Amino acid sequence: MLEDTLSSMSGGAIVTLFVAAFILLCVFLGVRVVPQSQKYVVERFGRLHAVLGPGLNLIVPFLDRVAHKISILERQLPTASQDAITSDNVLVQVETSVFYRIIEPEKTVYRIRDVDAAIATTVAGIVRAEIGKMELDEVQSNRNQLITQIKMLVEDAVDDWGIEVTRAEILDVNLDQQTRDAMLQQLNAERARRAQVTDAEGTKRAVELQADAELYAAEQSAKARRVSADAEAYATGVVAAAIQANGLEAAQYQVALKQVEALNALGKGEGKQTIILPANAIEAFGDAFKMLKGKG
């Protein structure tokens, strides 16, 4: 039946059919739709010709071919663990993880065979070198700075491979059991030392406060004595000024005043009291009362 159909067709129709089929094949081979998350590396006669980005692209059929389809999504290397020795000779085990993405696939496919293995080896070497420059305490306390330094060095190392390192992480820094025991003993000793220092500082502070209190009390006592002395001096000055101004009469008045005060104090005593006074004392009191009355 096919032979009958072909025999019934003219030679021009057959040529037209083959031309149409060839055109369809060229369109099929020449049009390439690249997904958003990929890039295509195109070779012509075995050599790099072009890199196709996401979207609709055209290539020359039978001359160009898509040799590599490269994902440009961010990738994560498997968590790697490597040993390193710090500058104070402590063996540590560092767990790292690196994130990267391919931005120039033409470099990646023609310059490196196993990208993940190459990056992992590079990271391991850089981590050992950087930790070797630091003491253990610095590794623990300056982890962010160490991560930044490692990321920068890895970026420089893989730049020729068309790779961008987006993140580098140090997940953990592990120590062997002997080192942990030694650090625990050191930590306990440091805590005991700090407790002793705190107790000593507390005792010192208590002594200082006690001394300050005693000094304050002494200062206040001295101020009180000085005020009392100033009052007595003032009273003496007043009496002296009165004697100087009024002569003997003022002095006799003060003596009479003191005698009356003494007699008043004796009279206020508890119980019955018998007071024997000499005769001239009675006369003195009489004079004193006269003088007080006269002053009044």
Question: Describe it for me?
Answer:
With 296 residues, the chain is of the alpha+beta class. It has helices at 2-8, 11-30, 105-111, 115-131, 136-141, 143-158, 177-246, 248-267, 279-295; strands spanning 31-34, 38-44, 47-52, 55-58, 64-71, 75-76, 80-85, 91-102, 163-175. The strands form three sheets. Strands 6, 7, 8 and 9 form a four-stranded antiparallel β-sheet that branches. Strands 3-2-5 form a three-stranded antiparallel β-sheet, covered by helices on one side. Helix 4 (115-131) packs across helix 6, helix 7 packs across helix 8 and helix 8 crosses helix 9. It contains nine helices and nine strands.
Topology, element by element:
Elements lengths: L1 H7 L2 H20 E4 L3 E7 L2 E6 L2 E4 L5 E8 L3 E2 L3 E6 L5 E12 L2 H7 L3 H17 L4 H6 L1 H16 L4 E13 L1 H70 L1 H20 L11 H17 L1
Antiparallel strand pairs: 1-4, 2-3, 2-5, 6-8, 7-8, 8-9
Helix pairs in contact: 4-6, 7-8, 8-9
Shape: rod-shaped
Give the termini separation.
Answer: 167 Å
Beta-strand portion reads: 15-25%
| Helix-strand topology string | HHEEEEEEEEHHHHEHHH
Number of helices: 9
Gyration radius, rounded: 55 Å
Largest sheet: 4 strands, antiparallel
| Average pLDDT level | 80
State the share of residues found in helices, binned by percent.
55-70%
Count of beta strands: 9
Structural class: alpha+beta
* Uncertain spans: none
